[in-house]
Amino acid sequence: MILARGMIEEITAALAADGLILRGGFVFPDVENAPDGAAARSVLLVGQAGAAPWPHFMRWRAQQPQTIANPLDTWSRQVIGNVAEAFGARAVSPSDKPYLPFQQWAVRAEGLKPSPLGILMHPRYGLWHAYRGALLFEDEIAVPEQAETIHLCDSCVDKPCLKSCPVDAYSRAGFAYQACLAHVRGANGEPCRSGGCLDRNACPYGTEYRYPPEIQAFHMASFARAAS
After folding, report:
1. Taking CA atoms, which of 23, 36, 127, 203 is between 20 and 30 Å from 213?
2. What are the helix (H) ranges across the chain?
3. Which pLDDT score, from 0 to 100, does residue 159 have?
4. Can you tell which superkingdom this protein's organism belongs to (predicted)?
5. Rounded CA separation 105/134 (Å)
6. pLDDT tens digits, residue range 192-203?
7. Distance of alpha carbon 5 from its chain centroid, rounded?
8. Is 86 exposed, middle or buried (0-12, 13-18, 19+ CB in 10 A)?
9. Max CA separation in the chain (angstroms)
10. pLDDT (tens digit, 9 = 90+) per residue, 44-94?
11. Given this model, what pLDDT does residue 25 score?
12. How far apart are CA 93 and CA 102, in angstroms?
């Protein structure tokens, strides 16, 4: 059975109630398995553009124990799980183990390519977007074929995203993870802790979707706390 596009419109509306959006989808060439071993024929990716989910997340968080280790993941699982249950899908998360190839799925679903920071560059949202989960279906889904996407990094000559970090955490050689972590945790890491990654903020694309400082600080605190 092929799921009709009308169902996709209904799923889109259900996700929008919590500030989330569909990020494309496709049919697997062969049946694939989720971490629980269950088979899937197709996938719809769920994520965000800019800060749209934040008010919904914060209202939920205010009603939860403050000891929740990963509140944004927990909220995302709950919201996407509810939508999955309503539409006969299974919800999976980027943090599920063994890890699912979310970045590969995103490349296929939206035709995106990585920026020099490793974050996929979106032609509209720039670096200010994320994938929060996916809906797996046992049936095929009817989604429009993905049009060719312009990769903005190809025309960016100056590459300010590689010049703004005080410890050169990002370079053409890759991500200097330990240098970044030590800086964020250290005495001179306040600009990053309170306002987010300087390299990411230096990107000139999608600035209207840039996360506000409090959201960037939330993610930076999570990075500093969880990383080792």
Report:
1. 23
2. 5-16, 54-61, 71-86, 102-110, 177-185, 190-195, 198-202, 213-226
3. 95
4. Bacteria
5. 10
6. 999 999 999 999
7. 24
8. exposed
9. 58
10. 999 999 999 999 999 999 999 988 889 999 999 999 999 999 999 999 999
11. 92
12. 9
The residues, any chain, with a CB within 8 Å of residue 126's CB and separated by 6 or more, are 152, 203, 205, 206, 207, 209, 210
Stretch 95-109: mean pLDDT: 91
- DSSP labels, 127-182: T-EEEEEEEEESSEE--PPPPP---GGGG-SS-GGGT--TT--EETTEE-HHHHHH
Q: What is the pLDDT of residue 130?
A: 97
Tokens 């990094």 found at: 153
Domain boundaries, the chain: 2-151, 156-226
DSSP-assigned letter for residue 97 = S
Structure tokens at 96: 């599920």
Calpha distance 152→154 (Å, rounded)? 5
pTM of the full predicted structure? 0.92
Can you tell me the distance from the alpha carbon of 46 to that of 50, in angstroms, rounded to the nearest whole number? Answer: 14
